[in-house]
């Protein structure tokens, strides 16, 4: 029988540590529901000691999901473990994920501790967590740069204390595949009780090697991979789920493993995560990039038309592309909409359906075919982000060859109605200036990008902005059939996310 590969998804924890990405509880829940449909085995839902928001999100996800294992990250301190357990305990299968750094560099300079003390902390922490659950993962942060024999000692002690999964992260994306293979083999050969735990790997992409390292680790015996959708995460990101899943699927001769991933949900999940986080997927990104299945050269096009196998190693349908996600139109009723939203993973209340239906009808008047992406966008903007500080009520712009571009804006600030008008270099600049004056913000616009949400000339424009305020960076996103309105929505969304970050203590992880 083939071995099974466990997919541990950390989009909601390490992924959320991507610069600018921040999600509220409703958004995290939406992603978690989608990850369950996709078939991931474990969802790392957050780091409860990091903030109340993280705790709340982990609890909500733990209570909602029906079959997926939910992990909460924690340091070795007992108070942190208590918070992690409190948040995750209602999951069908809760997991406590304890981590501490084991490299001398981190022990000496970051933790100001000693190898002996850290070893003691690990044993105590795992034993303490064991009082809550048998399902305990231990991660040796910066494991790939730790002394090998010390690492083996740490793993042996953690397993002895009760850890059932042992994770060896390449925290700073430093190793190359050969080194990782060798390290994993060494650890397996020199940790006497290693067969009592699942060996897991967690790679970062600083040298662009996260997927290669993860695959090398699987070859070397790892049976859990820690990944994120679209590879989002700290700095250059984490190993991307879709790349590993499709490598396993496509290269069964090399990786004779099974997994629970429904590959046809890969692209819809990628789009959802991109939409909610505001982090765009680069067009040439493997598997989920807009160009991943596009053939530009004439010779290639000719070959694919004659036989797709000439230039396609995977079928677009296998990753959920090519199927028409067209669902509803102008004449569709509320029940059809509600049923489809349910199928997509949204269990909305009567009032929420009412809001979505109204926005759906407005869009359907402008756009013939309403696709899943349009609906996701409507729900993200209209339902998931309701507790925001700023709310755009009205926008009117004048621009053209003979007038100075000017915008009039009505903006609610914590429910208080404000309005103003200002000029700008163009209509978008005028809208941003006016919103910035009303919101009394000096946030700097670092990036502005626009694309079409779906195909067709009547597609909604999707705008993402990157805003900086002091040391904080937030991404904002907006969609509308009018690109100036989409831009204003994205700007307001970015300001709201900055407000959210201001209230949130700085992440504890580096
Ligand atoms: O990169 C890392 O080492 C981590 C650990 C907390 C698992 O994210
Ligand atoms: Zn990490």
Written description of the protein model:
The protein is α/β, with parallel strands linked by helices and 510 residues long. The chain folds into 4 domains: 3-277, Aldolase class I (TIM Barrel, Alpha-Beta Barrel), CATH 3.20.20.70; 293-320, no CATH class; 324-373, no CATH class; 390-502, Alpha-isopropylmalate synthase LeuA, regulatory domain (Double Stranded RNA Binding Domain, 2-Layer Sandwich), CATH 3.30.160.270. It is 40% helix and 21% strand. The chain has 16 helices and 18 strands. The strands form 5 sheets. Strands 2-3-4-5-6-7-8-9 form an 8-stranded parallel β-barrel, surrounded by 6 helices. It has a 3-stranded antiparallel sheet with strand order 13-14-15. It has a 3-stranded antiparallel sheet with strand order 16-17-18. The longest helix has 21 residues, at 483-503. It is globular. The model has no long low-confidence stretch (mean pLDDT 92). Bound molecules: 3-methyl-2-oxobutanoic acid (KIV) and zinc ion (ZN). 3-methyl-2-oxobutanoic acid (KIV) is lined by residues 14, 99, 139, 141, 167, 169, 171, 202, 204.
Layout of helices and strands:
Elements: E1 3-4, E2 6-9, H1 25-38, E3 42-46, H2 52-64, E4 69-74, H3 78-88, E5 93-101, H4 104-110, H5 115-130, E6 136-141, H6 148-161, E7 165-170, H7 177-190, E8 198-203, H8 210-219, E9 224-227, H9 241-250, E10 257-258, H10 266-277, H11 298-306, E11 326-328, H12 334-344, H13 350-366, E12 370-371, H14 372-384, E13 390-398, E14 406-413, E15 416-423, H15 427-439, E16 444-452, E17 461-469, E18 472-480, H16 483-503
Helix pairs in contact: 1-2, 1-10, 2-3, 5-6, 6-7, 7-8, 10-14, 13-14, 15-16
The protein binds 3-methyl-2-oxobutanoic acid and zinc ion.
Residues 14, 99, 139, 141, 167, 169, 171, 202, 204 line the site of 3-methyl-2-oxobutanoic acid (KIV).
